[in-house]
Design brief:
By secondary structure, the chain is mainly β. The protein is built from no helices and 6 strands. It has strands at about 20-35, 40-50, 65-70, 80-90, 95-100, 100-110.
């Protein structure tokens, strides 16, 4: 069932995410981690909100880790894919992280 565009709250810049709590962000997948078959079932991607202005001293704060537990792959999620995500934010190894986020593929980067 398609999601109505109006059903999504306004995205928050990643550097303004709460340390814990529900949030919506949008951005581009910068990296994905493919784990060996012998490791735990987990697919991880890094989302960057390139559309928000970065400053030289932001310290990489425009990165959000997305983790899908129990999955080796998520169809359509690859480097260059533009997404909108919603989920609970927590800090994991100093990086804001969403586990099993609700997501919508907006498009892919050209270039």
């Amino acid at each position: 069932m398609p999601t109505d565009q109006g059903a999504w709250p306004v995205p928050v810049p990643i550097n303004e995410l709460p340390r814990r709590g529900r949030a919506v962000c949008s951005g581009v997948i910068d990296a994905v981690t493919i784990r060996p078959a012998s490791s735990s079932l987990e697919f991880t991607a890094i989302l960057t909100d390139r559309e928000f202005h970065r400053t030289p001293d932001d310290g990489g704060s425009h990165r959000l880790r997305l983790v899908w537990l129990g999955r080796r792959r998520v169809p359509g999620i690859e480097v260059g894919t533009r997404l909108r995500v919603e989920g609970m934010v927590s800090l994991r190894d100093g990086l804001p992280t969403m586990f099993n986020p609700r997501y919508e593929i907006i498009g892919t980067q050209e270039g």
